[in-house]
Specification:
The structure holds two protein chains of two kinds. By secondary structure, chain A is α/β, with parallel strands linked by helices. Helices cover 47% and strands 10% of the residues of chain A. Chain A has 13 helices and nine strands. In chain A, helix 2 (36-47) packs across helix 5, helix 4 runs parallel beside helix 13 and helix 5 runs parallel beside helix 10. The longest helix of chain B is centred in the N-terminal third of the chain and has 38 residues, at 73-110. The chains are: A alpha/beta, B mainly alpha. The A-B interface holds A 1, 3-4, 7, 10-11, 14-15, 18-19, 22, 122, 145, 147, 151, 154, 156-157, 159-165 and B 6, 20, 187, 189, 192-193, 196, 405-407, 409-410, 443, 446-447, 450-451, 454-461.
Chain lengths: 309, 469
């Protein structure tokens, strides 16, 4: 028994040494990343100081052109959205930003049925490489599991499965979002013909709201407002999907009204949702669509800003 | 409790220390302790179903004892029926009630009559198919006078509920496992060391290969209307490896875990995808189940000591039933029937052919046909399976969907390591890494596997596929 315990101890020590050494290397890769998702997240959490911040999932990442915002409003803008993420990620990014400064304007992209589904908590595990250096995001990641705080002591666990996207920007630049695009991921091209349709689907969800998602959304929205940011909640368009009467949108209307937060719904904008030239796939706008949509949005935001001054 | 959960990572060392330090001087204490921890292990999932295991154990223990006192074959048979009805009754109710009710109603509606199928909201007890078959084999073997019944209730209860193999096998025979509960276990460094290595490799197969592949497979099969034939073909190959790693990984963890407590469980998988015939495949895949069906279904049906036509029918029926054992869905039945048909064709036509086919080509062909059958196993219904096969063979398309390219790359990497290991074990055993004669190689392999598992494993607490069976 003593022999086996000794051998297991030796293996454990060796493993921990390798783990910490690998962690140093991976931290370096993360911190020096020339572009891509880790550069973007690091900037969002640590160095962003832009006047306007856009937060959302992949729709947020592709649909909002920060250059249009900068030119129109004469401000600086940063798109902090991240594909495949949900409210826990938005919350973590909010904590990282508000920990350092208060943006003047925040555009929060909410999807038409986002508050009816799960919270996408597991997906926020994407932020694990930043766990150790960012106490402000730890409470959110700790919700993934009770043992998260112990797991993340292992550097290899924090970087689990991240290596491809962590190392690729060193070999091929610009594939995962270019630094000069300010967090925006513009896509050129047009929606594939297999997705083309003549009819518009009117979404009539009846699913109940997810209490956890609603609570997290309310926390994010109210915190931005309390801190002094001008918050705009936006529902962006999808191709041939008309969303105007979902439980999420109905809830957003009530919430926006009672908290005096502007709500800009574009998922019912038939000039956009019926135009395939604006889309790269059914859920995301292409460069042209994104630029058009952002201009239209700024056209709505500008008078609201002026009115409040 | 799942082997790949943090709960088990805490449970196992505690049980291990108590077993070897507290209960190591008394056999009855050792067996009682194993029953206790096995019930905790099972009850962690749902304590209510402990009553099923306990009831099955009591019934089979008493039936076994009573049967040994009787010489009258009619009375012995009656007792056997008691055991069969109770055990298969539980299995039939919990696993197949809704399936048969719905199928019955569908059959009526096919002929123009509508009947209302009343299904029940039944939770399937984890591992019921495994422990039911294990206890059944005990009673049948006593009936056949192959074994003597045990009079040691503690040993028998420990045999039925032994936690390493309780929920997903290997399905042990009483003749092999039960006697191991009759003597006090002595700690052996070699046994524990071998056991830990098996567990490590099993964990690698599960979290670093199977669960990684599952992400891609789910993406493709979960959205079958969006993908090309090439993507389906790749997803099917991935699924073939996924299910192998999922189940063989579980079996290895179970075998390794049992070995740490001084028990020897039977080998359940022996690199099945290196098989050159279907017969060989089934002597390497889920060995404990295929031998169970051979001994308790195929041979009682007449086996191969009957006419050729009847022999083929026996093969086909045995594999079809084996398919149904895997799940209450026609897809599993189709999967089993396909394998039955493959075996019949192989036995009836191919065995007699005198064409020289290179071994590697035979292995590739067997793998290919196995993959065709896996489509049925993975699909949600027969319609989807047919659509996927049709798409693969008639509309391959030109683009492969990679999904997340990082995940795809790690899937390939994991399969590469798995293939290299299996190849070495099969053809170059002296180069085996985990059991290499050089301690430095063994040590480096262990550390590498740990690093790989932590760095590239999937830790979403996913279940083992075979738990549902």
């Amino acid at each position: 028994m003593v022999t086996i315990i000794k051998k297991l101890a030796v293996i454990a020590v060796c493993f921990l040494i390798i783990d910490q050494a690998a962690g140093l290397f991976l931290d370096l890769c993360r911190d020096q990343s020339p572009d891509g998702r880790y550069y973007k997240t690091k900037h969002s959490l640590e160095t962003s100081d832009e006047d306007v911040v856009i937060i959302g999932s992949s729709r947020g990442e592709m649909n909002y052109n920060p250059f249009v915002i900068e030119d129109s409003l004469k401000v600086t803008a940063w798109n902090a959205s991240r594909g495949g993420q949900g409210l826990p990620y938005f919350h973590a990014i909010q904590n990282g930003i508000l920990n350092r400064y208060v943006p003047k304007i925040v555009i929060l992209n909410i999807e038409g049925s986002m508050l009816e589904h799960r919270r996408f908590l597991a997906e926020a595990g994407f932020l694990r490489p930043f766990y150790q250096g960012h106490p402000e995001i730890q409470p959110i990641l700790n919700e993934i599991s009770y043992f998260e705080k112990f797991y993340n002591r292992l550097r290899l666990f924090s970087y689990n499965s991240s290596y491809y996207y962590l190392l690729r920007p060193y070999l091929i630049k610009g594939l995962d979002g270019r630094r000069e695009d300010k967090g925006w991921k513009p896509r050129d091209g047009r929606i594939h013909e297999i997705f083309l349709r003549d009819t518009t689907e009117i979404v009539k969800d009846t699913e109940p709201l997810n209490e956890g998602a609603v609570a997290e959304f309310e926390h994010i929205a109210k915190t931005f407002k309390e801190k002094g940011s001008r918050l705009f909640i936006v529902v962006s368009p999808n191709y041939q999907i008309y969303e105007d009467n979902t439980p999420t949108i109905n809830y957003l209307r009530n919430f926006a009204k009672s908290n005096q937060i502007p709500l800009l719904i574009h998922s019912n904008d038939t000039t956009m949702i019926r135009n395939p030239d604006f889309f790269i796939d059914p859920d995301h706008l292409n460069r042209q669509g994104s630029t058009y949509f952002t201009k239209k949005l700024i056209g709505e935001i500008r008078p609201l800003l002026t009115a409040s001054l | 409790m799942l082997f790949n959960s943090i709960d088990f990572a805490i449970f196992l060392p505690i049980v291990f220390v108590l077993y070897w330090f507290v209960t190591n001087r008394n056999l009855k204490l050792q067996n009682a302790f194993l029953i206790l921890v096995s019930y905790i292990f099972y009850g962690w999932w749902d304590w209510r179903f402990l009553s099923l295991i306990a009831f099955s154990s009591v019934v089979d223990f008493l039936v076994g004892l009573k049967m040994s006192d009787l010489e009258d074959p009619v009375k012995r048979k009656r007792l056997l029926w008691v055991s069969l009805i109770i055990n298969l009754g539980f299995l039939g109710f919990f696993k197949y009630f809704n399936f048969f009710t719905e199928s019955f109603a569908e059959a009526f509606s096919f002929f123009g009559s509508e009947i209302n199928a009343r299904t029940l909201n039944i939770v399937l007890p984890v591992g019921i198919s495994f422990y039911t078959f294990q206890t059944l084999s005990y009673t049948i073997d006593i009936y056949r006078k192959n074994i003597e019944p045990t009079r040691d209730a503690l040993a028998f209860f420990a045999f039925v509920s032994f936690f390493p193999q309780l929920v997903a096998g290997p399905i042990e025979r009483a003749a092999h496992l039960l006697p191991q509960f009759y003597y006090l276990k002595k700690f052996s460094y070699d046994e524990v060391s071998y056991g830990l290595k098996k567990m490590l490799w099993g964990l690698f197969m599960k979290v670093a290969v199977a669960d990684r592949l599952a992400i891609y497979v789910e993406t493709i099969y979960g959205h079958s209307d969006l993908h090309t034939g090439i993507s389906f073909a790749v997803a099917t190959i991935f699924f073939a490896v996924q299910i192998y790693c999922d189940f063989a990984g579980y079996s290895l963890i179970a075998i390794g875990c049992a070995q740490m407590f001084g028990f020897d469980l039977m080998e359940n998988f022996r690199r099945p995808y290196f098989s050159a015939t279907f017969k060989e495949f089934w002597s390497r895949w889920h060995i404990s189940l295929s031998t169970w069906f051979r001994d308790y279904v195929y041979i009682p049906l007449g086996g191969n000591r009957v006419s050729k036509a009847r022999n083929y029918l026996n093969l086909f029926v045995t594999f079809t039933i084996s398919g149904l054992w895997h799940g209450a869905n026609w897809t599993f039945v189709a999967w089993g029937a396909l394998h039955g048909a493959f075996q019949c064709v192989e036995k009836g036509f191919l065995d007699g052919l005198r064409i020289k086919v290179p071994h590697v080509l035979k292995v590739a062909l067997i793998f290919l046909f196995t993959c065709v059958a896996w489509v049925f196993f993975r699909a949600v219904n027969i319609g989807q399976a047919m659509y996927i096969l049709q798409t693969i063979f008639t509309r391959p398309g030109s683009s492969l969907y990679f999904g997340d390219k990082g995940m795809f790359a790690f899937s390939i990497l994991g399969m590469g390591i798995l293939f290299a290991n299996d190849y070495v074990q099969e053809y170059r055993p002296k180069f085996r890494l985990l059991h290499n004669p050089y301690p430095a190689v063994r040590f480096a392999t262990i550390v590498f596997l740990l690093v790989y598992i932590v760095g590239l494993g999937v830790f979403d607490g996913s279940q083992f596929i075979y738990f549902q069976f």
